[in-house]
């Protein structure tokens, strides 16, 4: 086992806080902007619940870094702010500059070999995928029994 480094302080900013700030922010943006889980108020409740879980997980991780003495409050706050800022920037870049080209990229041979899917135009892609697999399964079961 290697001994711990001889440094007295952990990094600035906290990489754990940075990742958790990024994840909670990006996840929230993606859930509220890009997905439609159902129609009506249940959609908003479900999105709020999922986002709340992501934010609570981030808060718990950041609090643990301070509680365990791995980072100061400033290191954690800078990490969260940096992570959240990068998440907003990345989400914006993808939506504004990359998404218009998804349909073209989807047509490339390498995209087919990698089994890439462009689901950016499908509002409730989880339901779409679920119903597609269900229909295909029924079709194959009918063929098998015939």
UniProtKB/TrEMBL annotation:
<keyword id="KW-0812">Transmembrane</keyword>
<dbReference type="Pfam" id="PF01569">
    <property type="entry name" value="PAP2"/>
</dbReference>
<keyword id="KW-1133">Transmembrane helix</keyword>
<dbReference type="InterPro" id="IPR036938">
    <property type="entry name" value="PAP2/HPO_sf"/>
</dbReference>
<feature type="transmembrane region" description="Helical">
    <location>
        <begin position="20"/>
        <end position="37"/>
    </location>
</feature>
<feature type="domain" description="Phosphatidic acid phosphatase type 2/haloperoxidase">
    <location>
        <begin position="9"/>
        <end position="95"/>
    </location>
</feature>
<protein>
    <submittedName>
        <fullName>Dolichyldiphosphatase 1</fullName>
    </submittedName>
</protein>
<dbReference type="InterPro" id="IPR000326">
    <property type="entry name" value="PAP2/HPO"/>
</dbReference>
<keyword id="KW-0472">Membrane</keyword>
<feature type="transmembrane region" description="Helical">
    <location>
        <begin position="49"/>
        <end position="70"/>
    </location>
</feature>
<feature type="transmembrane region" description="Helical">
    <location>
        <begin position="76"/>
        <end position="98"/>
    </location>
</feature>
<dbReference type="GO" id="GO:0042392">
    <property type="term" value="F:sphingosine-1-phosphate phosphatase activity"/>
</dbReference>
